[in-house]
Design brief:
The N terminus is likely disordered. This protein folds into 4 domains: about 130 residues, Conserved hypothetical protein from pyrococcus furiosus pfu- 392566-001, ParB domain (Alpha-Beta Complex), CATH 3.90.1530; about 40 residues, Arc Repressor Mutant, subunit A, CATH 1.10.10; about 55 residues, no CATH class; about 30 residues, no CATH class. It is of the alpha/beta class. The radius of gyration is 28 Å and the shape is elongated. The strands form 2 sheets. It has a 5-stranded mixed sheet with strand order 1-5-3-4-2. It has a two-stranded antiparallel sheet with strand order 6-7. It starts with 8 loop residues before the first helix and ends with a helix. Helices cover about 50% and strands about 10% of the residues. Strand 3 and strand 4 form a beta hairpin. The protein contains 13 helices and 7 strands.
C-alpha cells in the first residue's frame, strides 16, 4: 500500500462534524493554519496494536456482511483506511472497526490507517456518523450512541440533530426506544420489529407493550395495522345500546355467521342511508385477537 495521502477523507468527516468541532476550530490542537488544508498521511499500523473503541455505537456485526468484506479485502486490499487515535502504547479505533476485524480474521499484519488527535466526544461523533454513512446502525445502536453524546458529552438534542443531519423529533423518537422493555429491544435488535413498529407500540398502555410486540413480530403485522390496533386499545368502547327488536332473517343470519368467525358479539345496525356493524370485545387481548382476524390477508 502506498503511503501517499488519501485525498478528502479527513475533510469529509470534518465537514460532517461541522465547523464548530474542536478539531476544526482555529487555534485548537492540531487545527490547520492559514493556507492550503493539511491532508492526513496514511500509515500501515500493526493490527495487534489496535483495539476497538469501547464506546463504539455498533454492538452487533453481521457475519455475512463481514465475510463479504473479508472477501473484498482479500481480492482488492483495504481501499479506505481506518481512522484511529493514539491511546497508551497503541491505537484505538475511531472509525473502521469492521475493516479492522476483517483484517484480523484474515491474519493480515498491518492495516492502513490515519492517526487523528481526537477526544472521547469527537471519537464518538465520528464513529456514529461513519456507521450511518457506510452501513446503517440498528435503531437501538443509533439511540444508544445519541444518548452517549448527550449524557457523557453535554450535547443537547438539537446539537445532536444538527451533527447527525437529523431533525429534532427524529432524535427524540430515537431516544424513546431506550425506554422500551428488554423483550421488545431484543425483537428490534434481531430485526423482527422495525423502529416504526416500536414507536407505534410506545403509544400503547405500558402493561400491554410486550404482548403487542410479540404478536406483531409473530404475525408480521404491518406498522399501519399495528397503529390501528393501538388506537383501538386507547379508545374506550362506546356504551352498549339497546338492541332493536326488528331485523330481517337475512340480517340475523349475517350476524350469526360473523359471530362464528370472530368469536364475538356482533350487531348489524341499519339506517336510512347505510348503517354500521358493531363488534363487541371483552378486553384488550380480545380486541387484538379480533383485529388479527380482520387484518388477515
Amino acid at each position: 500500500m502506498s503511503t501517499a495521502p488519501k485525498r478528502g477523507l479527513g475533510r469529509g468527516l470534518g465537514a460532517l462534524l461541522g465547523d464548530s468541532s474542536p478539531l476544526n476550530a482555529p487555534g485548537a490542537p492540531g487545527a490547520a493554519s492559514a493556507g492550503p488544508p493539511v491532508v492526513d498521511a496514511i500509515r500501515q499500523i500493526p493490527v495487534d496494536r489496535i483495539r476497538p473503541n469501547p464506546h463504539q455505537p455498533r454492538k452487533t456485526f453481521d457475519p455475512q456482511a463481514l465475510d463479504e468484506l473479508k472477501a473484498s479485502i482479500s481480492e482488492h486490499g483495504v481501499l479506505v483506511p481506518i481512522l484511529v487515535r493514539e491511546r497508551g502504547e497503541g491505537y484505538e479505533i475511531i472509525a473502521g472497526e469492521r475493516r479492522w476485524r476483517a483484517c484480523a480474521a484474515l491474519r493480515r499484519g498491518t492495516v492502513p490507517a490515519i492517526v487523528r488527535a481526537s477526544d472521547d466526544r469527537e471519537s464518538l461523533e465520528v464513529a456514529i456518523i461513519e456507521n450511518l454513512q457506510r452501513e446503517n446502525l440498528n435503531a437501538l445502536e443509533e439511540a444508544a450512541g445519541i444518548a452517549e453524546l448527550i449524557d457523557s458529552h453535554d450535547f443537547t438534542q438539537e446539537q445532536v440533530a444538527q451533527r447527525l443531519g437529523k431533525s429534532r423529533p427524529a432524535v427524540t423518537n430515537a431516544l424513546r426506544l431506550l425506554g422500551l422493555p428488554e423483550a421488545i429491544k431484543a425483537l428490534i435488535a434481531d430485526g423482527s420489529l422495525s423502529a416504526a413498529h416500536a414507536r407505534a407500540i410506545l403509544a400503547a398502555p405500558q402493561a400491554q407493550r410486550v404482548d403487542l410486540a410479540k404478536r406483531a413480530a409473530q404475525l408480521g403485522i404491518s406498522v399501519r395495522a399495528l397503529e390501528r390496533i393501538v388506537a383501538a386499545i386507547n379508545q374506550p368502547p362506546a356504551p352498549a345500546k339497546p338492541r332493536p327488536a326488528n331485523g330481517s332473517p337475512d340480517d340475523r343470519e349475517f350476524e350469526a355467521r360473523l359471530r362464528e368467525k370472530l368469536g364475538a358479539a356482533v350487531q348489524l345496525r341499519r339506517a336510512s342511508n347505510g348503517g354500521s356493524i358493531e363488534i363487541r370485545y371483552a378486553n384488550e387481548t380480545d380486541l387484538i385477537r379480533i383485529a388479527e382476524i380482520l387484518l388477515e390477508e
